[in-house]
Amino acid sequence: DAAIALFTADLRLSDNPVLRGAVRAGRRVVPLFVVDEGLAATGFAVPNRAAFLADCLADLDAGLRERGGRLVVRRGDVVEETCRVAAETGAGEVHLAGGVSGFALRREERLRAALEADGRGLRVHDAVITAVAPGAVLPAGRDHFAVFTPYFRRWSAEALRPVADAPRALRVPAAHSEPLPSAAALTGRPGTLSPALPEGGERAGRRRLDAWRRGGMAGYADRHDDLAGDATSRLSPYLHFGCLSPVELVTRARAGRGEGAEAFVRQLAWRDFHHQLLAARPDASWHDYRPRHDRWYEDAGELAAWRAGRTGYPVVDAAMRQLAHEGWMHNRARLLAAGFLAKTLYLDWRAGARHFLDLLVDGDVANNQLNWQWVAGTGSDTRPNRVLNPLTQARRYDPEGEYVRRWVPELRGVAGRAVHEPWRLPDRDRRGYPEPVVEPGDTAGRFRRGRGLV
Ligand code: FAD
């Protein structure tokens, strides 16, 4: 009469079909989180995300305790530990959120086989991690959508399941638990922690969501690309770890109406779009979705300059320094920093994507890798040869140069938009800021000249 709710990327109590499913199926529920050594071995658990995850687990445990439960924490192989807890507590069923990455799919498969061998069942819940489950809408004769606009049309017409409240009270069987893990215990690798990370957890996510719905969302359609305005929701880490439910976000935004809400819902659909793409093509996490180039430029020094925010292109460097400091970057900044690596420097997108994954607190295989492929022109996009000119982008999205001055202290003394072209300034005004790594007039040159199309 017990069931396990195995938490993965759904670290919340509200609107969580996994937890509700377990509560409904069994009179007693074991809320379980396994610190998966298999995941640690992949190198994905970098310090920034580990810190956020530690907050999430502490917050989840606190919420469960308020309801008479607690989080059971184990460490080891996720499949073995889950089976062990099931045997110890007599749980007949395990409830799990359907995932999309190769890692999640393998975990699900192994778990099903191991549980069935023990005479137990696995229940996989859809529309937990995304608003619309991958594969729920399909184009005729294909297993996924490759183009966003037709996907969005179908996605928008899809009825969402009703939003459910958190369970009020829980009955939990006795089960051994390790102490809540610290950030250090969750990270499988060394690396620096960004000094200005957001606080993790459902409650912190909900505070941000409430502020967003009261303040930011209405102006989102007009202001989402304004780099200095910083007028996006910053909900991405909470979505990545499942502290907030995408079904709830879409439902509530639609109820609020208005241009801002519509534009916000469209971005949430982009998130689902990339998830359904990765679910159908798990290889696209590191392999070109559509191979278009047979070679990339190689230059370790340029890659290092890009990572360090020392390319000599202020808007690109501002973006990279924001990433290092906050573990987060504005979407427009991601687009132009990624475009600079893949199109201007013409370096392999995988090196850039790896660096983003090392630092982003919302670092996500589906969103990061497929956005990178979109920018690099190896993705499913219909305009793969688009090149974002960093100077044009800077003038358009940081017209006064405020974003650059915020993140590039060397150039703080330069007024207005002149800050975007430091190569025109006298040396003394540049204060050690580097020369541009490629000629300012030739930001698309390598990509156009060096393209070795497959
Ligand atoms: P908002 O503008 O408030 O948007 C709301 C939500 O919609 C976001 O939280 C996010 O969940 C979703 N969203 C918005 N834009 C996109 C998009 N283009 N693709 C998918 N989902 C989107 N997003 C991640 O969550 N993780 C990543 O690892 C990631 N890597 C990226 C790498 C590159 C090169 C690029 C160009 C984009 C990447 N994005 C990634 C998408 C996007 O930049 C971030 O989701 C967004 O900047 C997060 O800020 P926000 O929450 O304020 O977004």
Automatic annotation (TrEMBL):
Its cofactor is FAD. FAD binds at residues 220, 232-236, 264, 362-364. Residues 1-132 form the Photolyase/cryptochrome alpha/beta domain. Gene3D superfamilies: 1.25.40.80, DNA Cyclobutane Dipyrimidine Photolyase, subunit A, domain 3, HUPs. Binds 1 FAD per subunit. It comes from the Bacteria. GO terms for molecular function: deoxyribodipyrimidine photo-lyase activity; DNA binding; FAD binding. It is an enzyme of class 4 (lyase). Belongs to the DNA photolyase family. This is Deoxyribodipyrimidine photo-lyase. It comes from Streptomyces eurocidicus (Streptoverticillium eurocidicus).
